[in-house]
Amino acid sequence: MKLTTVTNVSLDGVTQGHRRIDAGTQREAAAPDEEGSGGFERFGWGPPLLDDEASTFISQAFQRADAFLFGRRTYEIFAGSWGAGMDPGNPVGKALNTRPKYVASTSLTDPQWANTTVLFGDVAAAVGELRAEPGGELQVWGSGTLIRWLLHHRLVDQIVLLTYPVVVGQGTRLFPTTGLDIGLELVDLQSTPKGLTIQTYRTTGRPQYETATT
Questions:
Q1: Is the Cβ–Cβ distance between 140 and 4 less than 8 Å?
Q2: Per-residue confidence band for 29, with pLDDT thresholds at 50, 70 and 90
Q3: Which domains does the chain possess?
């Protein structure tokens, strides 16, 4: 399977606070941030810019997945919403409830959401085995900490960015200030009426750099 990350991101690279999560119910429709608040105040910057075309893309992407991989926090938020039977006729909910789900966690021991497997120990090897299985996409939604870890270990095959036309100005960014360099090839580009751009990149290993000439 092709490991594909799908991330809602602001123009300045922020992933945190895309949607406002209800602290009581922990219900969230799609791709929440994983890192918690940490003093962040600008929640909910995504929905005002989400239009029908972007929503259709998100729905179709979920349906395209053969399996899902989450960090623990994102998993628990999804389990508390879609796993609790929210919008049972929704195709996103159907995909999430019927397809295999994997969680990279050292502390989750008794997942209640059906079809869930916890990956612990040598997570890199376990993810490598999943990528080697036949199928289409192993998708990662939200899970910013996990995505950065996967990128660091060069385990990502494809990156999908839903880039919103807003500068949030604070919060956790998708890509760290210091990290591995990653070459990318653009394989698809879409735009929506409210100004989102949806970029799909294939990872190509390390990028090429201009060499000094004499």
A1: yes
A2: very low
A3: 2-203 (3.40.430.10)
